[in-house]
Specification:
single chain
Length: 81
């Protein structure tokens, strides 16, 4: 991990005092695994984060974000042009 990445993770920890367990390490793993695995790891982190928002900030509506997360997206064979 370079200095910029370490700095961003430290900032994220300060900005999110309530976060999923081991969130910084898990987020780092998202980018160190094959893409299909990374997507699943990231999806889990997002789901856990939304559950924490529901629990600790009930005035925030997470329904639209959850609906967006549930939609299946078509996988690309090649990068977009």
């Amino acid at each position: 991990m370079n200095d910029a990445s370490a700095w961003r993770l430290a900032l994220a920890r300060k900005m999110m005092p309530i976060a999923p367990p081991d969130a910084p390490a898990r987020l780092k793993r998202v980018f160190q695994t094959p893409p299909q695995t990374g997507v699943l790891l990231l999806h889990g982190l997002i789901e856990e984060t939304l559950s924490l928002v529901d629990k600790h900030m009930p005035e925030v509506d997470t329904a639209e974000t959850r609906r967006t997360m549930e939609r299946l997206r078509e996988a690309w064979d090649e990068p977009p042009t």
